Amino acid sequence: YSFFYKPLELRDGSIMITGRGFNPVTVSDDFILVKLDNNGNLVWNKTYQSRFWQRGNGSADVFGLHDLKQDPVTGDVYMTGYHWSDPSAVTKIDPADGHIIWSNAYDTWSTNRAFGVVVEPTRLLLFLLEYNSSNESYINVVGIDKSNGDTLFSKSIRQTGDLYAARLFSGDQVVKMNN
């Protein structure tokens, strides 16, 4: 079985679709990336497995994809997501053939969930929601070098521990405002 999550129209008119499919060899739901041309014909289909996944499926192989974006300058594609209890990840992919250019994990001190990435001319801004058992939550912003995935900086914005105060518990995506 396969589950498909998110389509992305590339600047050449082709389409990338992300999803998951069961792999009987690894006994896990591997990550799938499919590229279609602008007429809907299959160009390539790639399956990826995370180094953080344990054997089995369920929480062992969770990868919560939250963002799929194309760099408007280079054309490279960035996938952003989180693992169940392991670091969040950003993977840079060449859309011509689907090979991984680099893939790095970015960790915080507690449970974290990536919820978006902003593509800038020389860097990426990865946004993570972090929370812990003390009912504290943080928004972490990680600056990433687009050429190699190295961390440029990491900033943490603490949200209140007050249960009745407004704060972010879940994030779906990040949109850059040009204002």
Q: Can you count the beta strands?
A: 12
Structural class, from secondary structure content? mainly beta
- Which residues form runs of ≥5 with pLDDT under 50? none
Strand line-up in the sheet with most strands: 1-2-3-4
The oligomeric state is: single chain
Description of the molecule:
This protein has 179 residues and is mainly beta. The chain contains no helices and twelve strands. The mean pLDDT is 77.
Provide the descriptors you would attach to this structure in a database record.
179 residues, mainly beta, four-stranded antiparallel sheet, 0% helix
Task: Offer a concise description of the structure.
This protein is an all-beta fold and 179 residues long.
SSE layout and pairings?
Blueprint: E1 2-9, E2 15-23, E3 28-36, E4 42-48, E5 63-70, E6 77-83, E7 88-93, E8 100-106, E9 111-119, E10 123-131, E11 137-145, E12 151-159
Antiparallel strand pairs: 1-2, 2-3, 3-4, 5-6, 6-7, 7-8, 9-10, 10-11, 11-12
